[in-house]
């Protein structure tokens, strides 16, 4: 049998178009949020919108480079890419530049590069490589631990840089592993801890413990799979430990500003004067962001016509709070359009991931979708006050070269892998 070596690559143009639509719409909002005068010089490279235009222009060259590289390169050298990425994170403790309290950047001339953004792609490649190995069985404890170690290493390194937002993103890999057969009890444990933590902070550890007791009794009598006595006792002891432990963690481990953000989110503070003080200090960005979004109404105030955006009421609005610009100037219609574009991109990537013939490509595709989803969900939820304030950018939208290029690399490696699936026999 003669093997056909003539490869015809067919890139998924739906993914590519959705990507650049988000990038283009994002730049328009960066322009609106960062311009400083009535007359706008679109090529003023001293302003964020001008710099972002340069980043976007260079992105085209990066896309061409990523698609020109042989698809097998990304799988073959995934471990090397991961190691280099981890070394870049370690190097920050020696050569890193501190910006806003986080040592997450390298200063190169007049530019800064944030390696934690690129580490997400490296981790996605490493997880895909390990999980797809013929000797790996994600149902065994040994392989589960080794996979968790791959994910935890960059998460810890990023956390030590005081970048909590980027650390949380590594939780996205849970969805990837769950798709590949991670036992369901991990999901049950995760949801249970989250619920108990919220109940403990909101109503007290005793209420959380009683709730766990009621649930165990109900499960024992109503479920077909009866719990044994020692299992019920173990679950109750674990619930008590979580309920009282989260209170200790909240009061003794978290920093004051992190406590305040959770307190505001769960409405723990009842003193009206303290609430007003919060809105004037650490919650100022959130408060102004909510006002900007609500003022947009159905169709918005119009491009570059948002009073709170042009008045610079939301500090650094072109970065983490860029969605408030969308809400004010484009209204509910524009905000819904952005959400729809992100959902379409996520669904498209997941659809393509399921069509992959190699497990490596499928796992990596799920990693791409999961990372984008966590960023998208947390950022928009944060800006609207639905979840605690966490410093995390909106993919393809927020200002920043590192973020834009990192998501470009993340997505277009998958586009390349997808184009090569016809040869993955």
Automatic annotation (TrEMBL):
Name a GO CC annotation attached to this entry.
cell division site
Kindly give the PANTHER family that the UniProt entry links to this protein. Answer: CELL CYCLE PROTEIN, PEPTIDOGLYCAN GLYCOSYLTRANSFERASE MRDB
Molecular function per GO: lipid-linked peptidoglycan transporter activity
What superkingdom does the record give?
A: Bacteria
Q: Which UniProt keywords apply?
A: Cell shape, Membrane, Transmembrane, Transmembrane helix
Protein name as catalogued: Rod shape determining protein RodA
- Chain segments annotated as transmembrane: 12-32, 52-70, 77-96, 144-161, 182-199, 229-250, 330-351, 363-390, 396-415
**Is NADP among the key words of this record?**
no
């Amino acid at each position: 049998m003669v093997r056909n070596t003539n490869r015809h690559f067919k890139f998924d143009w739906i993914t590519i178009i959705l990507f650049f639509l988000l990038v283009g719409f994002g730049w328009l909002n960066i322009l609106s949020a960062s311009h400083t005068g009535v007359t706008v010089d679109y090529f003023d490279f001293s302003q964020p919108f001008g710099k972002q235009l340069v980043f976007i222009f260079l992105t085209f060259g990066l896309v061409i480079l990523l698609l020109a590289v042989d698809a097998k390169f990304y799988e073959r050298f995934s471990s090397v890419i991961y190691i280099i990425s981890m070394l870049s994170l370690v190097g920050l403790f020696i050569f890193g530049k501190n910006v806003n309290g986080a040592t997450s950047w390298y200063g190169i001339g007049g530019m800064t590069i944030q390696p934690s953004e690129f580490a997400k792609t490296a981790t996605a490649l490493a997880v895909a490589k390990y999980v797809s190995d013929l000797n790996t069985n994600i149902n065994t404890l040994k392989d589960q631990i080794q996979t968790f170690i791959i994910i935890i290493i960059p998460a810890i390194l990023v956390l030590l840089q005081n970048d909590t937002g980027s650390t949380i993103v590594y939780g996205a890999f849970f969805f990837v592993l769950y798709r590949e057969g991670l036992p369901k009890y991990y999901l049950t444990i995760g949801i249970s801890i989250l619920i108990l933590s919220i109940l403990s902070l909101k109503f007290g550890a005793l209420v959380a413990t009683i709730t766990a007791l009621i649930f165990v009794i109900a499960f024992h009598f109503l479920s077909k799979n009866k719990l044994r006595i020692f299992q019920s006792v173990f679950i109750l002891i674990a619930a008590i430990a979580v309920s009282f432990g989260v209170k200790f963690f909240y009061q003794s481990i978290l920093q004051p500003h992190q406590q305040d953000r959770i307190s505001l989110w769960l409405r723990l503070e009842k003193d009206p004067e303290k609430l007003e003080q919060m809105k004037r200090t650490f919650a100022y960005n959130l408060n102004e962001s909510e006002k900007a979004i609500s003022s947009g109404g159905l169709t918005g105030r119009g491009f570059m016509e948002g009073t709170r955006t042009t008045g610079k009421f939301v500090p650094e609005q072109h970065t983490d709070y860029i969605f408030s610009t969308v809400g004010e100037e484009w209204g509910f219609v524009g905000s819904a359009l952005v959400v729809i574009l992100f959902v379409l991109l996520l669904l498209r990537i997941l659809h393509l991931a399921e069509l992959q013939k190699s497990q490596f490509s499928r796992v990596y595709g799920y990693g791409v979708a999961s990372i984008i989803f966590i960023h998208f969900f947390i950022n928009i939820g944060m800006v609207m006050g639905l979840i605690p304030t966490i410093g995390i950018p909106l993919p393809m939208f927020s200002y920043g070269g590192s973020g834009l290029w990192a998501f470009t690399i993340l997505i277009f490696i998958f586009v390349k892998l997808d184009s090569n699936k016809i040869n993955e026999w």
